[in-house]
Hints:
Layout: H1 5-18, E1 32-37, H2 51-67, E2 71-73, E3 77-78, H3 83-92, H4 96-112, E4 124-125, H5 129-144, E5 148-158, E6 163-165, E7 170-171, E8 174-175, E9 183-192, H6 198-203, H7 212-222, E10 224-234, E11 240-245, E12 256-259, H8 266-269, H9 275-287, H10 290-295, E13 303-310, E14 317-322, E15 334-337, H11 343-352, E16 360-361, E17 375-376, H12 387-400, E18 404-410, E19 415-416, E20 429-432, E21 435-438, H13 468-471, E22 472-474, E23 481-484, H14 492-495, H15 498-501, H16 514-520, E24 525-528, H17 536-549, E25 562-564, E26 568-577, E27 590-591, E28 597-598, E29 603-605, E30 608-615, E31 621-622, E32 628-630, E33 633-637, E34 639-644, H18 655-662, H19 664-673, E35 681-682, H20 687-702, H21 722-740, H22 744-757, H23 766-776, H24 781-790, H25 807-810, E36 814-821, E37 824-832, H26 837-845, H27 848-854, E38 861-865, E39 869-873
Helix pairs in contact: 1-24, 3-4, 18-19, 19-20, 21-22, 21-23, 23-24
The protein binds one RNA strand through α7, β11, β15, α11 and β35.
Amino acid sequence: MTYNPRVIEPKWQQYWLEHETFKAGIDRDRPKYYVLDMFPYPSGDGLHVGHPEGYTATDIVARYKRMRGFNVLHPMGWDAFGLPAEQYAVETGTHPRETTSRNIETFKRQIQSLGFSYDWSREIDTTDPGYVKWTQWIFQEIHKLGLAYEAEIPVNWCPALGTVLANEEVIDGKSERGGYPVIRVPLKQWMLKITAYAERLLADLDDLDWPEPIKKLQRDWIGRSEGAEIIFDVVGHDVTIDVFTTRHDTLFGATYMVLAPEHPFVDLVTSDEQRSVVEVYKAEAARKSELRRQAELDEKTGVPTGGFCINPATGENIPIWIADYVLAHYGTGAVMGVPAHDPRDYAFATQFGLPIVEVVSGGDVANEAFTGDGTAVNSGFMNGLSTPEAKKATADWLEQHGHGKAAVSFKMRDWLFSRQRYWGEPFPVIHVDGEAKLVPFDELPVLLPDLDNFAPSGDFTTPLERVPEWINTTDPETGRPAVRDKNTMPQWAGSCWYYLRFVDPNNQQVAWSQEAERYWMPVDLYVGGAEHATLHLLYARFWHKVLFDLGHVSTHEPFQRLINQGMVQGFSYRYYDDNVDDADGGEVRRFQAKHVQPTLEGAEVDGIPVKPRWLAMSEIARDSEGRAVHPDDHDILLEEVIEKMSKSRGNVINPDDVVAAYGADSLRLYEMFMGPLEKAAPWSTEGIAGVYRFLQKAWRLLIDDRAEQEPLKELAEDAGTPAQVRLTALTVKGVTEDIEALRFNTAISKLMIWVRDIAKEGTVPREHAETFLLLLAPLAPHIAEELWARLGHATTLAYEPWPQHDEAAVRAETATMVVQVNGKLRDTFEVAVDINEEEAIATAMSSEKVQSFLSGADPKRVIAKPPKFVNLVV
RNA sequence: GCGGGUGUAGCCGAACUGGUAUAGGCGCCAGAUUUAGGAUCUGGUGGGUUUUGCCCAUUGGGGGUUCGAGUCCCUCCACCCGCACCA
């Protein structure tokens, strides 16, 4: 028998489980290391090869850190509430609880088959009542701080999903999941005041060891800008309109005022003559989908209200308009129109004939808005000031005259925290006489009622409202009739704090003990996809800071170091056909990609609309030249596309198949060998054969697989030849450095070189073989354990000390010295590493080849860095 | 449109602070072994050439700094990812 992962992998997985090899507990004698994966949503499709990429990386680090003496916390769990299970319930009537537990079972089996060193005694399921209880408790804690409130606001309503979505879940006017259209309707919603933490969420990013692009994404999402709030008196009414602007220095150029159509004062300031047009415009704006709004960015629409306000700087009356280019939810929902110095205002003013007054010189406002810095003109007391000076002067003037003050505004909005869905955490809240009251702590968790129809109602009512016996309850305090909250929390709720539950997952009394939290937190390494840059990672940071303020956690930030693994992509094969309606039967014409023109709605060939089609790798045919072609029509060349794996593209690789064919160690190794962890790369079915061969070679290096009992090969009991000593020392040094830097691809290539070369000039010394197995263990743990055992060790190598190398052994005695003439390589020498400059130059000059390039002349200049190189310049 | 990232062989990729570009793997070619195929092992694999050798080119394109550039600077191009009227 040769290397057989199908036998040894289940054996060691069993061993680790039975011996609880990776169970972690508080141990103050060892430094702790908390390494965490973004836990998965257990979808019905099971794991695909993208999941294990990050999991393998964290597992390597976890195993490596254990061997370096760290007490490692490495847990796994399930983010199990969410839309897909509920959608499935809508379609099939299967209770999401059933779907969820089945999916979890599949995920767990698959993850365990890959040999990850999770402490399974800490497994978490966010839908478990024992977990929901504490999610609800945290909501109540947030509520007690006044950070949760209900508001009637226009929300993103998705008719197809029957729910509202957070702004972050709406992409290009369509739902992130499913791509259904989204419209805006006002509904009463729970909001979390994340904006109260904007300043800290921004500032504390500085100290995090996160990828800079992710930090920038969060900074931009938070969107802090400094400017001023300016108060405009409204003519004829006893109200003021506040605006936020970053260009308060242009106040003298504000020639009109624009309110968002949803602004609360619109009705008040509208004159009787204008009332009907304003009403029409408001209605249109409300109906407009996000998609259309964004498609029409260039054309500005709006109507005058007939009302006026007073520019506090000029004292002049300026007209008040409404226009949907002003966003209701940013700043104050009102903007002062300064056409000369803002391109949007310029377009608006030009279109509606509003006056354009230059107040900063430096541009040509007859042609376009000038947005740069310049010198204030037409600006009364500020004339002659530079733009920064003018801003300061305006802020001071506003404050002195009671017309406003310097102010800061954020792009980030409060977090819309309720969903009109079933499969989520119920709010631990009852409503008594229209007042929201928290459910007493000892009644937590508030569990979902059972349901047999999960379909969305389509009329803005929620699934929970259909269970009157659950909705209707009594206030335990007063005995008065009350109703439960009809909404559920969004999927983010459970993932906002799971990393805290992992430190003390079975605690019945508290969400986590202070002792466990102080010992384990923060997470030292967090690995997951970049798609969570602004959602999960911002929400979790927000909750963490709230919990910090309440004294429940001891760190400001939850995740000290973050790595984004790249996507594992797949090869897919594409062509087009003209069956755009997906009709059955009939004549269908196929086209290859090069004839297809992209259009606004899709694609076309010679004016005929066409639709892309994908073929799975297993379905394609090859023509005589080996090109991918359509199986039924070899004239249709298929376009090879590298893209995200998805069912619709037919390019999904199932890890079960890979494990069955090559084993978990090969899968792990290949995922890491594909390239840098952060970089996306396409899965190659051939590529995995290479790492499989490497493991086979490693096996045969130590095992005589031709002999009957597959005995251990003869190993040398001495220290090895100098070359072997150096090779092993170099490998220890290189692999250690690479793992520390998460460069697993180069670590693997160094191990490959070791296997290739160690037996070149003699028998493998036992000592070296053991060192190799320890280096291999984090990456390919099953084979390492098996060979370790066969070398005569009775217990797991999971806690063996990590190999050290001798610096002296790494140092070579000679080096290759390069001689260049005019920067071009002309000769090389083996020289002693301690050669001095003089000797190096003399050696270089002694070369006949070099002399021939010098053609007799003396070099004008000599640059020597012994023992690396000598460069002769003529 | 704005912001960020990436670009090295047929493919995935390596190259520490500027110092022999292309390590390692895949694929391909040849040889060995084998009844054959597969598997395995050995060697080769940028181009040219008069082939134990010699010469030349090359890191998306162009330009620059430097004795020397994949690496630094400018500029252009392609692809990917965010954001998108944020006043």
